[in-house]
């Protein structure tokens, strides 16, 4: 499974399945729908029903344990948040889902790991920068998985990976509301090529 999480912020339920198909066909099989999108649970359920056997479908911008319960009911397997909330992490793990809380400081990283996070979403990654990531990597447990999100593009994938990134969350560089599946397929192919080159 490639270390790219596609973030479909603002997607409409009518678009969810064809856009997901474009991503999966390109080789991107971790996909989240932020909960501040239109009717997100309808989109997530449709995506799970159609692609749940070949892709890890999840929700983003998950802020409360109640949100986690609603996500779990769709059959999704991943919860992504912009912040580090131990209650949300605990609810996610109790529900049997993978937890990707948002962190930026060492304190938040260690709090998220203590609460049971599966991996960490460094957000916004541009604020930490390459040198910041190197410094963070020096103190975190070696097995910690770090996904860089926010201002990270394919041109710099290799540099981020060299600094210790495990993967990337990509939003508007892959999908913006109104994009066609063909638009997404083209960008996804470029993203996959950059990913594969960075992890060679």
UniProtKB/TrEMBL annotation:
Pathway: Carbohydrate acid metabolism. It comes from the Bacteria. CDD domains: KDPG_aldolase. SUPFAM superfamilies: Aldolase (SSF51569). Keywords: Carbohydrate metabolism, Lyase. Its EC number is 4.1.2.21. GO terms for molecular function: 2-dehydro-3-deoxy-6-phosphogalactonate aldolase activity. It is an enzyme of class 4 (lyase). Belongs to the KHG/KDPG aldolase family. Homotrimer. This is 2-dehydro-3-deoxy-6-phosphogalactonate aldolase. It comes from Palleronia abyssalis.
């Amino acid at each position: 499974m490639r270390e790219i999480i596609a973030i479909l912020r603002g997607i409409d339920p009518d678009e969810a399945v064809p856009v997901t198909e474009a991503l999966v066909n390109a080789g991107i099989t971790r996909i989240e729908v932020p909960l501040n999108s239109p009717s997100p649970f309808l989109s997530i359920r449709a995506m799970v029903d159609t692609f749940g056997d070949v892709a890890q479908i999840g929700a983003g911008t998950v802020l409360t344990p109640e949100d986690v319960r609603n996500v779990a009911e769709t059959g999704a397997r991943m919860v992504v948040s912009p912040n580090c909330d131990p209650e949300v992490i605990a609810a996610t793990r109790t529900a049997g889902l993978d937890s990707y809380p948002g962190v930026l400081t060492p304190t938040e990283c260690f709090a998220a790991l203590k609460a049971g996070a599966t991996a960490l979403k460094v957000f916004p990654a541009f604020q930490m920068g390459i040198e910041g990531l190197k410094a963070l990597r020096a103190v975190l447990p070696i097995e910690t998985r770090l996904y860089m999100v926010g201002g990270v593009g394919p041109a710099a994938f290799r540099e981020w990976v060299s600094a210790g990134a495990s993967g990337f969350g990509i939003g508007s560089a892959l999908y913006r509301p109104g994009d066609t599946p063909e638009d997404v397929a083209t960008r996804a192919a470029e993203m996959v090529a950059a990913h594969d080159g960075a992890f060679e």
